[in-house]
Design brief:
By secondary structure, this protein is an alpha+beta fold. The chain has a single domain, classed as Alpha-D-Glucose-1,6-Bisphosphate, Chain A, domain 4. Helices cover 30% and strands 42% of the residues. The chain contains three helices and seven strands. Strands 1-7-6-5-4-3-2 form a seven-stranded antiparallel beta sheet. A hairpin with a 4-residue loop joins strand 5 and strand 6. The longest helix has 36 residues, at 121-156.
Length: 162
Amino acid sequence: MPVFTKQSTINAPASLVFAWHQSADALTRLIPPWEHVVVEQAPASLANGQRAILRLSIGPVKLRWIAEHTGFIDRGPDGGEFSDFQVSGPFKSWAHRHSVTALSPTTCTLTDHIDYQLPLGWLGRAFGGAITRRKLEKMFAFRHQVTREQNETAATSPSTTR
């Protein structure tokens, strides 16, 4: 099963970064502008059982992607984690773990770890494996950049410093 991992250091408290992921508009902010994705239903929270429904276009094909949250753990100042797994969508399987881990009181690590399988077995791997990998690398570079910018700015603004 293919695995994709992206890890970044963010100069902001882990609790701030984890809380940011729980904000109502975080999912929308994390969708790259070049992706043809619309949030049809954002999850009410990241709690276990909550679902996100996305509408996406892959060329002429229109799909709904339903992802359900599980494994929610809030560790307070030490960060937290949650997962989403595909209920239905473009992959044969998709399990995505989001982790925020404190390195110090003002710095943390953001890790996205994805186990996935493409549809159509060896045909999917042969014709879509490299393309999917490049798309994930580009998408998660964007997502980590947005998360870093949003949280490092918030961490240094006068209203959030102590």
